[in-house]
Amino acid sequence: xxxxxxxxxxxxxxxxxxxxxxxxxxxxxxxxxxxxxxxxxxxxxxxxxxxxxxxxxxxxxxxxxxxxxxxxxxxxxxxxxxxxxxxxxxxxxxxxxxxxxxxxxxxxxxxxxxxxxxxxxxxxxxxxxxxxxxxxxxxxxxxxxxxxxxxxxxxxxxxxxxxxxxxxxxxxxxxxxxxxxxxxxxxxxxxxxxxxxxxxxxxxxxxxxxxxxxxxxxxxxx
Length: 222
Hints:
Layout lengths: L22 E2 L7 E2 L7 H35 L29 E2 L4 E12 L10 E12 L5 E4 L3 E4 L5 E2 L12 E4 L3 E12 L6 E4 L8 E4 L2
Antiparallel strand pairs: 1-2, 3-4, 4-5, 5-10, 6-9, 7-8, 7-11, 11-12
């Protein structure tokens, strides 16, 4: 009758570990591979795919913006082309906020008005002011900045005091009066305006009506 004896470990158990093997035993991990055998090709492929995807997304968004811009231009060509305002067209729009004396104003007809000189308490051989009044001569320049011929009239230039009381220019009393007429494109002229106001009247503002199709412009006198 035979008996079973447990097998005794031999002198070479456990097997000797070869330092050149691809793995070795660790107390915490069953297997751990050497760093020298790590293949980074998968990581490179992932990076390339991510970059390609990001590029495609940017190109798609840019294409959508271009298509949207073309669509808006087809529906309303003027909406994407914002005209640059003419310098001086956005100042002097109200009596309470007039342009300064050295600023030029431009109305909706592309006509520009500039005050060149103000002569207070002027003296004219053809006109003497009434008692308690004085004469003011205002020299202005009118320029047509547009592409069509435009009319001008000195009667459109009214002097206002602080109470917005109006003084109209007196025609035919001074040489070089502005008068009235028309200006071709890219041309201008200088002219003088004569007003009789109360003596010592200050805070005067020149209002330029400029025709029925234009909003009045205001320039403060020094």
